[in-house]
Amino acid sequence: MASHRSATFSDQPYSDPNPLPSSVPHVEELGTTSAPLKSISFQLGSHCKAVNDDFMLCKAESRDPAKCLAEGRKVTRCATELINKMRESCLSEWDAHWQCLEKNNQHFQACRKLEKGLNDCAFSKLNLSKSIPGSPDGPQVHEKKSPIFTRVQK
Amino acid sequence: MPVPFEALLPFALLTVCFGATGTLFSIAKRATNDGKVGYFFEEYEENQWELARRRNSMNLPPRYHIDSWETMMMERDRRLTGSLRGQSTNPTAPKEFATNSVWETERVH
């Protein structure tokens, strides 16, 4: 086409140094990374179910980031609260589990023993249990005595 | 009857070659950074080639079957900790996290 222009790519990545406008209330962003988050994902899901559902429904209405900022702030605050509670009550079990996940490509099936310790601690101290929505009848896959899918043979 | 060792030399050669490759490969993996990140958030001053060279491989098995969700989470981990495999349980992010997200852009003018 006559209006074609060639692409010009920069060798430096672009990041916008401007902070959010001051009209947006400030919330401390969550500093937890992927493995610890995956480790307590189901506890987060049950503790913050209401605010998470609100946010997802808001996103389903509109993908515009500006529309769901308030719900997003609530999600961040709820998650931060749960992370703080986990750190003070179950830190050693949580650390053991997410470090095991990191060594196993973040597969849950490789770390069931440590996951049991973490789930027991979270249930006794924080009253949060892990249950997978949409599971068929019978024991949940993380509670099965002899599951079909386990870790690869080392 | 004595063992015909000349006939077995090629097998020994192959074994030595495989062994040497494996040893050198694991030395190279171990020699790269032990998971310690010597710097935080200075990465945007540097050339992308420098950045790629310094990307540290910790003494962890590599991630595989990485889909776009995992890529996004690993990029977030890099913004939080400086390394694609760095992990932390801090409840609050460092200050730089608010503005260090990378946008894929193209200069138009």
From TrEMBL, chain A:
This is NADH-ubiquinone oxidoreductase. InterPro entries: NDUFA8 (IPR016680). GO terms for cellular component: mitochondrial inner membrane. It is found in: Mitochondrion inner membrane. Residues 1-28, 131-154 are annotated as: Disordered. Its main location: mitochondrion. Residues 1-15 have a biased composition (Polar residues). GO terms for biological process: mitochondrial electron transport, NADH to ubiquinone. Keywords: Disulfide bond, Electron transport, Membrane, Mitochondrion, Mitochondrion inner membrane, Repeat, Respiratory chain, Transport. It comes from Dioszegia hungarica. It comes from the Eukaryota. Belongs to the complex I NDUFA8 subunit family. Accessory subunit of the mitochondrial membrane respiratory chain NADH dehydrogenase (Complex I), that is believed not to be involved in catalysis. Complex I functions in the transfer of electrons from NADH to the respiratory chain. The immediate electron acceptor for the enzyme is believed to be ubiquinone.
From TrEMBL, chain B:
The keyword Aminoacyl-tRNA synthetase does not apply. Residues 82-109 are annotated as: Disordered. Residues 84-103 have a biased composition (Polar residues). It is a single-pass membrane protein. GO terms for cellular component: mitochondrial inner membrane. Its main location: mitochondrion. It is found in: Mitochondrion inner membrane. Keywords: Electron transport, Membrane, Mitochondrion, Mitochondrion inner membrane, Respiratory chain, Signal, Transmembrane, Transmembrane helix, Transport. InterPro entries: NADH_Ub_cplx-1_asu_su-1 (IPR017384). It comes from the Eukaryota. Residues 1-19 form the signal peptide. Accessory subunit of the mitochondrial membrane respiratory chain NADH dehydrogenase (Complex I), that is believed not to be involved in catalysis. Complex I functions in the transfer of electrons from NADH to the respiratory chain. The immediate electron acceptor for the enzyme is believed to be ubiquinone. Belongs to the complex I NDUFA1 subunit family. This is NADH dehydrogenase [ubiquinone] 1 alpha subcomplex subunit 1.
